[in-house]
Write a structure and sequence with these properties.
Radius of gyration: 17 Å
Number of strands: 9
CATH class: Alpha Beta
Structural class: alpha/beta
CATH topology: Rossmann fold
Family: Belongs to the class I-like SAM-binding methyltransferase superfamily. NNMT/PNMT/TEMT family.
CATH architecture: 3-Layer(aba) Sandwich
Bound molecules: S-adenosylmethionine
Keywords: Methyltransferase, S-adenosyl-L-methionine, Transferase
Organism: Muntiacus muntjak
Shape: globular
Strand order of the largest sheet: 3-2-1-4-5-9-8
Number of helices: 7
Strand content: 25-35%
Largest sheet: 7 strands, mixed
Pfam families: NNMT_PNMT_TEMT
Distance between the termini: 51 Å
CATH superfamily: Vaccinia Virus protein VP39
Protein name: Nicotinamide N-methyltransferase
Order of helices and strands: HEHEHHEEHHEEEHEE
C-alpha cells in the first residue's frame, strides 16, 4: 500500500530540536544554513537568536525557490500548512524574511564550500544535507572539515541527519543517499575537530514505516562546538 508522505512526521523532531537548541542560548550574529534546500522551517527558531541568516544550497532550482519565497513572487511555495504549529506564524514569517540576508550557492565537497564568496567567520552553522551531498564516508569527513573553516573558534554546528538511508524521494524523483551508521557522526566530528555538546537519536516513527519516501532507520540531532 502506498502512503502519502507526511512532511510534518519528518520535520517535527527537527523543529523541536532546533527550537530547544536555539532557545537554550546558542546565540550569535551570523548563522549559515548549509544545504537549505527549498525549505524554510529550520529558520523559525534560529531567527530568535541570530540576527543574520544565510541560506545556501547546491542546486540553482532550490536557490530560486528560496528567492521566490523571500521576495513573495508568484508561485512561491506556501509554507503555512506545514508550519501551522509555529506560534504567530504570519509574524514569524516576516521575521524570517528579514533575517535571511543572502541566498548563496554552496558545495560541501569543496574545500571552500561558498567559493567565490568569502564571509566573516560565523557564530553558527546548521545543516541537514550531508548524506545527500556526500558520495562516501571519507567525503563526509572532509565536508565536516571544510564546514569547520566557516565557523569562528568556539562557534557551534547544529547538525541533523538520518541513519542507514540509501535513498529519498522528492516529487516522485529518487535521490541516492549515503548510509551512515550510528557511530559515524560522533567519530567523524571528533576527527574533524569538533567537540560534541549534545547528541540525540530518534528511532524512526512507527507511523512512517509504510511511507516509502525514504528508507532511513532513525534520525540524529546534535550540537558540536569548533574545538579551538
Ligand atoms: C535532504 S535535502 C535537505 C534540505 C533541507 N536542509 C531540509 O532540512 O529539508 C539535502 C539538500 O542538500 C543539497 N545538496 C546536495 N549536494 C550538496 C552539496 N554538494 N553541497 C551542498 N548542498 C548539497 C540538496 O540540494 C538538498 O537541498
Amino acid at each position: 500500500m502506498k502512503r502519502k508522505h507526511n512532511p510534518v512526521a519528518r520535520i517535527s523532531p527537527i523543529k523541536i530540536f532546533c527550537h530547544q537548541i536555539f532557545l537554550s542560548g546558542l546565540e550569535g550574529k551570523l548563522l549559515i544554513d548549509i544545504g537549505s534546500g527549498p525549505t524554510i522551517y529550520q529558520f523559525f527558531s534560529a531567527c530568535e537568536s541570530s540576527q543574520e541568516i544565510i541560506a545556501t544550497d547546491y542546486t540553482d532550482k532550490n536557490l530560486q525557490e528560496l528567492e521566490k519565497w523571500l521576495k513573495k513572487m508568484p508561485g512561491a511555495f506556501n509554507w503555512s500548512p506545514v508550519v501551522k504549529y509555529v506560534d504567530k506564524w504570519a509574524e514569524k514569517e516576516e521575521r524570517v524574511r528579514r533575517a535571511i540576508r543572502r541566498v548563496l550557492k554552496c558545495d560541501v565537497l569543496k574545500e571552500r564550500p561558498l567559493e567565490p564568496v568569502v564571509l566573516p567567520a560565523s557564530a553558527g552553522l546548521i545543516s541537514l544535507c550531508l548524506e545527500a551531498a556526500c558520495p562516501t564516508p571519507q567525503a563526509c569527513r572532509d565536508a565536516l572539515r571544510y564546514l569547520r573553516t566557516l565557523l569562528r573558534p568556539g562557534g557551534h554546528l547544529v547538525l541533523s541527519g538520518s541513519f542507514e538511508t540509501t535513498f529519498f524521494m522528492v516529487g516522485g524523483k529518487r535521490f541516492p543517499a549515503l548510509p551512515l551508521n550510528e557511530k559515524f557522526p560522533r567519530e567523524a566530528l571528533q576527527e574533524a575537530g569538533f567537540i560534541i555538546k549534545k547528541l540525540e537519536k530518534v528511532a524512526r516513527a512507527a507511523e512512517t514505516h509504510l511511507d516509502n519516501h525514504s528508507d532511513y532507520t532513525g534520525l540524529f540531532f546534535l550540537v558540536a562546538q569548533r574545538g579551538d
